[in-house]
Please model this.
Amino acid sequence: MTSTPFDLLVAVARGSGRTLGRQLEDQLRARIRDGALRPGSRLPSTRDLAGELGVSRPIVVDAYAQLASEGYIVVRQGSRPHVSEHVQASMSPARPSELTSGEPRIDFRPGVPDLAAFPRGAWLRAMRDALRNMPDAALGYTDPHGSLVLRQALADYLSRVRGVDACHSRVVVTSGWAQGRTLLLRALKASGAKRIAVEDPCFVEAWQAVEHLGLELVPVPVDDEGLNVDALAASRADAVIVTPAHQYPSGAVLSGERRAALLEWLRRTDGTVVEDDYDAEYRYDRAPVGALQSLDPRRIVYAGTASKTLAPALRLGWLVVPPRLTDRVKAEQTSSDFGGPRIEQHAFAEFLARGELDRHLRRMRAHYRSRRDALVQAVGEWIPASKVCGVAAGLHAVVRLPHGHDERAIMAAAAREGIALTVLGAYETVKRKRAPALIIGYARSSEAVIAAGVTELARIVHDVSRAAKARN
Model:
């Protein structure tokens, strides 16, 4: 089949420093994410595409096999390869007037990984093998705090990758971080805690959860070195929720000096730190800083989740709980839902044991780094008076604008044109004097979409500023 128009969408170059197969994979993956190749689109056969590109057929066979394992395409013997019906493109080229209700044309919202990159093939294999290997008893009412096989796998993984001091008896598997946070707050309240400190700014859900449970919320400011520990010490808080590896949303890393000060606060007050390690696996300029929990596992709770590394739909989270809180947290879980789905837990254990998560993270780090670089480059070119802040990590970046800009007006104007993003003010509990800032998630958009989106955003920033000056 040499007449297919899709043959024109990819090209490979020898001597580029990247293998021909990797070039082909990356280009096809990008076309699918961008929406140029839509769900159900037919692809050239391996023989035809190899002929068009002038490469050996095994190169195309391997590239198709890799994309099929990632869930981008479907390859079956005797039928034409095609783009998976389950893939959602990062951006549709539709005009704003053509969008369905609530669907952004360009999605810069933070907090969600590239869902199209979910390793469907590897997950299906793990799920199939988990079902095959699970004993019949594991399908019944088993340990409500997580299947033993997963708790052991998590203890090994967290110790190896994040340096966490973990044993399976102190690992509690939860339905995501949302449930884990609620269980912890209830356990802290039951143990006598009354005042809970949170970073300011922070996840909105964190302060909402504190207030919902009738605990006193204590906002503690964050700067370029992370949590202000002096302010924490003055707050008389019983516990604090922190994101030390990559503060959300500012992007700051808790400095060595602040880490030492936080540990001193812990030991002086015998308080509790809840370490939300939500996306520490994604650090692009150097190795991630180790988990804070390893420095005082008797007083620090470690919390992790698969929502940023794989997908929120898995609803898989975990806690490594200090001995003094373990029984209370487990009691809260037993009384609330008797644990999460066991089959998925066994599948995730298989996924971890095979190294599939490690492989997925290595692959996605390269993609996310490239997208962040594209964002930094586009912002520098089109909004040169701004500054991209925070370390090179995670799934979003903070773009600080010069004083005088109205971040919420920019967000509203962007939304009217089909561009979804958020602003720093949406995460603050206390209004403080600072430069306006946009929070831009780059995980779900290709480099081309990011460049185009920032170009449009630059025009919106200019138009909003000009309109404000005209009114004044």
Q: What stands out?
A: The longest strand covers residues 216-223. The chain has three domains: 5-88, 120-354, 358-471. The domain at 5-88 is CATH 1.10.10.10 (Arc Repressor Mutant, subunit A). Residues 118 and 169 are 30 Å apart (CA to CA).
